[in-house]
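Kindly inspect this chain:
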Amino acid sequence: MNCDKGQNDAFIKILSWWSKEKQKVKTAFLDIDKTGGTSEECARAIQFSAGRLSIEDFIYAGATTDSGGGGVGASLERELRLLHLIDIYYLKKFCGMHIVQLTFCTPCQKVLGMNGLDSRSALQAVFQIYYIQSETETGKYSRILSHICAEKGLTLKGMDDDIKNADCIMPSPVLT
């Protein structure tokens, strides 16, 4: 199981297991519930989530967690053992979800560049295109363009009278 505490005491739990039938690792999002910050509270949240699976005698073989705060490491293992939720050969790994995120983040940063103020990267260009498109569709630029179209008497052919008399409608560019 991968678990991680997020903002506002959100506690995400993702299961993974080896499928003999499919001959590969399978994963499933279990849930994300609000829990307290202690290992005892996190263990009870895991117990509650395991109860939803409708599997008798469900046992976890291991987990990856954060490396700090409650609901991690040896203290979580101790609480899970008290609730009889883990195997005697229980394995624990720290920051598993963070490593998975880095496997996606690092290549994207290498290819697209870093984002941020004053950056000139492909990622910043994508953001600018999104911003310009959203502003021309619904923002202040949409109203300015509507007035310019109305002043020039521009309309689009094939539209019914209700739409012709409304604000000038500009088709959105296809950016994908």
